[in-house]
UniProtKB/TrEMBL annotation:
Membrane-spanning ranges: 12-34, 40-59
Keywords: Membrane, Oxidoreductase, Transmembrane, Transmembrane helix
Identification of the protein by name: FMN-binding glutamate synthase family protein
Keyword Nucleotidyltransferase assigned: no
Species this chain originates from: Roseateles aquae
Enzyme Commission designation: 1.4.-.-
EC class name: oxidoreductase
Length: 548
């Protein structure tokens, strides 16, 4: 059944049943009267129902339209309710991205199903439009044996991890359904790539298939918390030492709503969710905006060391969406001062993500992925630390070219959340936070979850990953390279205008190794904010300069 019909079914019995049956009955009654039928009392009853609905509309005070247009005014609310689906299926062009275009979604669906993903008759993109990009190919392409591209993380640790260059980004059980988690992890296990738990911690559904896990530790310390919400070392060690857990990721912020906490209402805290998070059943589950285990850059680095010790020396890193530049610089200075480095940093772009957020946060808070990734990459290069800290990234990555472009800007690997949701069957209904997901991906409703058949969707998750990496292999070969890590900004071309193009290497700022150590602060951001940053505090050393 189409997603918009399932969505309509949630609302229809409550809002429209009375008046719609009355309307149909009236029409039928008029027909019967004209045909001299003998069931006039039935039609009278139906017409009476219609009259009651109309009187109710006239007397209610919440909706002006219904007071002026009783009964028929409900059509306006009905059409408004299904407008997103109608626009998506019948009005938007294949390349309109809102937030993902039909072409992007179709690519994921085809690769997840194993259908042909080739396109005939040339590109649908306007190659003369500003912003169009391509990767330059070589006259001497390479031939690679396979597409299982890997990046080592935590080489200095006792338990390093060899990660795929394409992994499942953070999505919690609770935000996703049990069946969705089961299918994602089964697909990850088969494909040998990593599955980020999200801050909702490790559930029984993450463990069932044994796929590699990145355990995300958020400000609520779910899975490793005391009753008052503070960090519990013993519970952390118990989960972290599980062989299935490969990486520990401290979440400082997320692209969907950086700097914003969250609350999972008590009504949604089921026994399964409560067991995974370590919270009481039926009580509000709070994720504070800030961590309580540390409050300064130096304390954060000490916390990283502590988590390594408790986990049996597994790689520990951080995830954040870039905000105030001086705060990131403060952490970088603390790293420089102490010699303590995270094993990896995941940069989340403000383009994300799966979590629902206030519109102002969705549209206007946090740095987009390109700017955040470049700042982090350039800082580590400028301090001579880039080779010791791996960088992952997330933010609207669904195709092999998306991966190639992010790696050209400095990433070692990419994560995807919504891409893998599409692989599960998500139709971008954008009802993720309502519990009414039509495909069973983002709901805790047992009946809705039944729509997501785990073995079938796990196979789709696996195929999407494999076919995307196969496409990445073909891009790498065409560029004459041997690994996507060799892709640089000199391989990507960006159109500035109808008559001007530039290599990304000449368009976006890059620093040379050790530049900051030499006192060569590159660009205004470094010149203004690097001197203000202090290793012992996230606050600047002096008031922010005001311009204008």
């Amino acid at each position: 059944m189409p997603g918009w019909l399932l969505k309509l079914n949630d609302y229809f019995p409550i809002r429209y049943m009375i008046w719609l049956f009355a309307l149909l009955g009236t029409a039928a009654g008029i027909g019967a009267w004209l045909d001299h039928g003998g069931s006039g009392w039935i039609w009278a009853l139906i017409c009476g129902s219609l009259a009651i609905a109309g009187i109710r509309d006239v007397l209610q005070t919440k909706r002006s339209i219904l007071r002026n247009y009783p009964v028929i005014g409900h059509l306006r609310f009905l059409l408004e309710f299904i407008r997103p689906e109608m626009r998506q299926y019948f009005i938007e062009s294949d390349n309109e991205a809102a937030p993902f275009s039909r072409q992007q979604r179709s690519l994921v669906y085809q690769r997840a199903k194993g259908d042909p993903d080739k396109r005939p008759f040339g590109t649908q993109k306007d190659v003369g439009e500003a912003g169009y990009e391509w990767i330059n190919h070589s006259m001497s392409p390479t031939a690679l044996a396979g597409h299982d591209f890997r990046v080592p993380i935590g080489a200095e640790r006792a338990q390093p991890y060899s990660a795929s260059v394409f992994n499942i980004s953070a999505m919690s059980f609770g935000a996703l359904s049990a069946n969705a988690i089961l299918a994602l992890n089964a697909g990850a296990q088969r494909g040998g790539f990593a599955h980020d738990t999200g801050e909702g911690s490790i559930s029984i559904h993450h463990r069932q298939h044994g796929g590699d896990l990145i355990w995300e530790i958020g400000s609520g310390y779910f899975g490793c918390r005391n009753d008052d919400g503070t960090f519990n070392a013993e519970k952390f060690a118990q989960n972290a030492r599980d062989p299935q857990v490969k990486l520990i990721e401290i979440k400082l912020s997320q692209g969907a709503k950086p700097g914003h906490g969250g609350v999972l209402p008590g009504a949604k805290v089921t026994p399964e969710i409560a067991a995974a998070r370590g919270v009481p059943v039926g009580q509000d589950c709070v994720s504070p905006a800030a961590h309580s285990a540390f409050s300064t850059p130096l304390e954060l680095l000490d916390f990283i060391v502590r988590l390594r010790e408790l986990s049996g020396d597994k790689p520990v890193g951080i995830k954040f969406c870039v905000g105030h530049p001086w705060e990131w610089f403060a952490l970088a200075k603390a790293m420089q001062q102490t010699g303590i480095l995270p094993d990896f940093i995941v940069v989340d772009g403000a383009e994300g993500g799966t979590g629902a957020a206030p519109l102002e946060f969705t549209d206007h808070v946090g740095a987009p992925l390109q700017e955040g990734l470049l700042l982090v990459h350039n800082t580590l290069v400028g301090l001579g630390l880039r080779e010791r800290v791996k960088i992952g990234c997330a933010g609207k990555v669904v195709s092999a070219f998306d991966i190639a472009r992010m790696m050209a800007l400095g990433a070692d690997w990419c994560n995807a959340a919504r891409g893998f949701m599409f692989a599960l069957g998500c139709i971008q209904a954008q009802t993720c936070h309502s519990g009414h997901c039509p495909t069973g991906v983002t709901t805790q409703d047992p009946l809705r979850q039944r729509a997501l058949v785990v073995p079938d969707k796990a196979e789709r998750v696996y195929r999407f990953h494999q076919n995307t990496l196969h496409a990445l292999q073909e891009l790498v070969q065409a560029a004459g390279l041997h690994h996507p890590g060799e892709i640089s900004a000199s391989h990507i071309v960006h159109r500035i205008s109808k008559h001007e193009v530039r290599l990304l290497a000449n368009l976006v700022p890059f620093v040379h190794p050790g530049a900051i150590l030499e006192g060569d602060l590159p660009g205004a951001v470094f010149k203004v904010y690097w001197p203000m940053a202090r290793a012992d505090s996230f606050d600047p050393a002096r008031p922010v300069r005001r311009f204008g």
